[in-house]
């Protein structure tokens, strides 16, 4: 066993300078090859997050995003998710001036696993600070699109207010917080939707508690009325009944109520207006209510009863 270990030791130490040089050359070759096949791409609009020291807030910053140049293999580049990449700048308490210029370096870029950030643009931005304050503000809901039926009657957030923290000077001129737009396009009935809140400003930093709300959107139907004149009244009788039926008046006026789009396309022929004479067999005169079938719309007849005279054939 000892002889075998001596043989391995002699093998490793023999020409060790040459072996070390070969190893270095191999590593250098690998780096050169990797660098030669690496790609460089510019990822625009990467979020820039500036973290102020405790008790302070960002009043203004000259840029809210940066363009980041990353280097890596094609596979590394394809795996990158721009939404997970951000540049983070920590402002130390030592640099607590209310106005300062800071340098953005590739080392501040996070979320580029597998690739490497090699450049950032812009490289310097101006930042103004203010004392942090907080304020409770109402939430306003924004909607986008148009319902298929009806209109948006109300859009109510829950909770109705949120706590906003940020620079005192900005909070003094901020009166409400908006939601991200709630899409109502093509909707046919009321619904609930959870949505994030929108940042109150582009170039200053604020936090909201909570940072999302549930919105109850209530749709109101656009209803109206339409009058159809002289609609014929038909009789409904028991099968095989051998009687002659006379209806007076033979026509009635019908008022239909419903959604405006349904009323516009309603035709008299689609209405079923009838006097229900089932169960009547003895000859004579009877007052029978007028029945109307108008689909989803509501309807009433004028007059709402007719005189039905039955006579044997």
List the helices and strands and how they pair.
Blueprint: H1 2-13, H2 16-37, E1 39-51, E2 56-61, E3 65-72, H3 74-79, E4 86-90, E5 99-103, E6 109-110, E7 116-121, E8 124-140, E9 143-144, E10 151-158, E11 161-167, H4 168-171, E12 177-178, E13 182-183, E14 191-196, E15 207-209, E16 212-220, E17 223-232, E18 234-236, E19 243-248, E20 251-259, H5 260-264, E21 272-276, E22 284-293, E23 298-302, E24 305-312
Parallel strand pairs: 1-4, 8-12, 9-13, 18-21
Antiparallel strand pairs: 1-3, 2-8, 3-7, 4-6, 5-8, 8-11, 10-16, 11-15, 14-16, 17-20, 19-24, 20-23, 21-22, 22-24
Describe what you observe in this structure.
By secondary structure, the chain is of the alpha+beta class. The chain folds into 3 domains: 38-130, RNA Polymerase Alpha Subunit, Chain A, domain 2 (Beta Complex); 132-220, YbbR-like domain (RNA Polymerase Alpha Subunit, Chain A, domain 2), CATH 2.170.120; 223-312, RNA Polymerase Alpha Subunit, Chain A, domain 2. Helix content is 16%, strand content 50%. The chain is built from 5 helices and 24 strands. It has helices at 2-13, 16-37, 74-79, 168-171, 260-264, and strands at 39-51, 56-61, 65-72, 86-90, 99-103, 109-110, 116-121, 124-140, 143-144, 151-158, 161-167, 177-178, 182-183, 191-196, 207-209, 212-220, 223-232, 234-236, 243-248, 251-259, 272-276, 284-293, 298-302, 305-312. Strands 2, 5, 8, 11, 12 and 15 form a 6-stranded mixed sheet that branches. Strand 21 (272-276) and strand 22 form a beta hairpin. The mean pLDDT is 84.
């Amino acid at each position: 066993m000892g002889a075998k270990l001596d043989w391995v030791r002699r093998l490793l130490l023999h020409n060790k300078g040459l072996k070390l040089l070969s190893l270095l050359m191999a590593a250098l070759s690998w780096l050169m090859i990797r660098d030669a096949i690496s790609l460089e791409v510019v990822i625009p609009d990467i979020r820039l997050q500036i973290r102020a020291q405790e008790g302070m807030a960002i009043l203004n910053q000259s840029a809210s995003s940066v363009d980041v140049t990353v280097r890596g293999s094609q596979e590394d580049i394809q795996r990158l998710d721009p939404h997970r990449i951000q540049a983070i700048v920590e402002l130390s308490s030592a640099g607590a001036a209310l106005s300062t210029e800071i340098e953005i370096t590739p080392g501040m870029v996070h979320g580029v696993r597998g690739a490497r950030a090699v450049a950032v643009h812009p490289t310097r931005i101006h930042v103004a600070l203010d004392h942090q304050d907080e304020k409770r503000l109402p939430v306003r809901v924004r909607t986008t699109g148009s319902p298929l039926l009806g209109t948006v009657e109300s859009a109510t957030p829950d909770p109705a207010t949120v706590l906003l923290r940020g620079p005192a000077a900005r909070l003094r001129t901020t009166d409400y917080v908006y939601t991200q737009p709630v899409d109502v396009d093509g909707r046919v009935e009321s619904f609930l939707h959870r949505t994030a809140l929108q940042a109150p400003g582009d170039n200053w930093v604020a936090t909201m508690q909570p940072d999302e709300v549930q919105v109850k959107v209530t749709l109101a139907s656009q209803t109206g009325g339409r009058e159809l004149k002289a609609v014929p009244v038909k009789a409904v009788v028991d099968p095989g009944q051998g009687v002659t039926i006379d209806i007076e008046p033979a026509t009635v006026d019908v008022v239909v109520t419903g959604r405006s789009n349904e009323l516009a396309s309603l035709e008299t022929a689609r209405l079923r207006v009838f006097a229900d004479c089932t169960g009547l067999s003895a000859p004579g005169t009877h007052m029978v209510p007028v029945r109307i079938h108008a689909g989803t719309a509501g309807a009433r007849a004028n007059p709402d009863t007719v005189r039905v005279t039955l006579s044997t054939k």
